[in-house]
């Protein structure tokens, strides 16, 4: 039985690393802080403003921190989101530290389970880019604006994040190809 050559071991390690880097899943703390899941202080839609500034990809996760005695998170349909209907959610989370993995592309609708909070604006739409969008990188995904109605500004930081991710993936791939060509020659 032949021992594994160090060079092919290195190749496997680098290949795995490049796959991990290019499909790196991210965790997003909803609203950007531990206390963000609450009724927004002004009538502007602050949770959706936060969501619009980010680019979510399949495999990413949303993380919420909140007081489980006072609040919860309901994942609901678009209709229930618009009417703040809490009666029959798709999913309910009330543990105070919730992680929701975004397993498919498209829109996710979240509202607060606390009395009256959704009506006062504690609700959020997260749009996860399709895999095709992720690969092409730069085409902007649909924003909550298109899904719900008039709102504020388009996302800006997202494109640069995607470019950075693409660059990292390209660099890793080039390294792997370089190692491969050495093995072949
Ligand atoms: C809320 O949703 C449930 C089912 O999901 C429905 O039966 C009920 O009529 C809705 N309530 C309102 C006020 O729309």
TrEMBL record:
Principal location class: membrane
Keywords on record: Disulfide bond, Glycoprotein, GPI-anchor, Lipoprotein, Membrane, Signal
Domain called Phytocyanin: residue spans: 26-130
Signal sequence, start to end: 1-25
Cellular component annotations (GO), alphabetically ordered: endomembrane system; plasma membrane; side of membrane
Family indicated by similarity: Belongs to the early nodulin-like (ENODL) family.
Name the record gives this protein: Phytocyanin domain-containing protein
Native source organism of the sequence: Canna indica (Indian-shot)
Lineage, uppermost ranks: Eukaryota, Viridiplantae, Streptophyta, Embryophyta, Tracheophyta
């Amino acid at each position: 039985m032949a021992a594994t050559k160090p060079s092919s071991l290195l190749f496997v390690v680098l290949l795995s690393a490049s796959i991990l880097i290019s499909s790196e899943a991210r965790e997003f703390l909803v609203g950007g802080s531990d206390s963000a899941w609450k009724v927004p202080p002004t009538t502007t839609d602050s949770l959706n403003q936060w969501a619009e500034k980010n680019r979510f990809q399949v495999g990413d996760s949303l993380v919420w921190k909140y007081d489980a005695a006072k609040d919860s998170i309901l994942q609901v349909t678009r209709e229930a989101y618009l009417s703040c209907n809490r009666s029959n959610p798709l999913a309910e989370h009330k543990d105070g530290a919730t992680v929701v993995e975004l397993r498919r592309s498209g829109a996710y609708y979240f509202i607060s389970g606390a009395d009256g909070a959704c009506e006062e604006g504690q609700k959020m739409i997260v749009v996860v880019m399709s895999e095709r969008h992720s690969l092409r990188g730069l085409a902007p995904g649909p924003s909550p604006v298109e899904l719900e109605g008039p709102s504020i500004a388009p996302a800006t930081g997202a494109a640069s994040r995607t470019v950075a991710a693409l660059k990292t993936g390209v660099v890793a791939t080039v390294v792997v190809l370089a190692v491969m060509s050495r093995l072949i020659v």
